[in-house]
Write a structure and sequence with these properties.
It is a single chain. This protein is mainly alpha-helical and 220 residues long. It folds into 2 domains: 95 residues, Winged helix-like DNA-binding domain superfamily/Winged helix DNA-binding domain (Arc Repressor Mutant, subunit A, Orthogonal Bundle), CATH 1.10.10; 111 residues, no CATH class. The chain is 62% helix and 8% strand. A 3-stranded antiparallel beta sheet has the order 1-3-2. α2 crosses α3, α2 crosses α4 and α3 packs across α4. The longest helix is centred in the middle third of the chain and has 30 residues. The chain is elongated. The N terminus is likely disordered.
Length: 220
Amino acid sequence: MLHNAVMSNLMAQGMTTSSYAVLALLDLKPWTGYELTQQAQRSLRYAWPKSERLLYSEPKKLVELGYAKTHKELSGNRSRNVYEITPEGREALAKWTSTRTQPPRIEVEALLRLLFADHGSSEDLFRSLDELEEDINEHHQAIVELMASYLGGGHPFPQRTHLSVLFATFQIDIFKTIERWIEFARDEIAEWPTTQDLGMTPRTETITRLLANDQTPLNK
């Protein structure tokens, strides 16, 4: 009941999970709106991807709530707003860490295409898997290179390396699982004469039995 009451109070103030993510970034150091958005895109995209437009609006909301403040800073012949967290913001951030997390959500358009593949062809489905593989490989390689840079002292906030690396283990495992599943899905689809009206084939029944026993067919 306490967690629910705290969450209700925070949400009533107009704070969202994205708001707290931006607030946590402000706790690291002051940022301009542009810097904050760029850092959010780099550090949050694998856990909480949000549009640039949304990220730009969050600092202003935090200022309105008293969780951040802003001051002007000269940059060449122009001035820019720099945002920094307030004591009230740090208190709100600490309260957020004790609230109930939201259920996980997975958004992968290639999976949505698979779910409705009976409206298209096998070729369409293979193309979706190719595109998914291309994107995942790119993300996978980026994380590998990022970890290599950490070994050379490349973390921008070295005191937080233990958190970033633990998070990276989740990312790498997810990427490897998706890569394995893509190969498995290709082999299965290659056996389909069509994407339509196949129903419970013998092979589908075998896979279903494995899943019903909490086993994965990826290694079979």
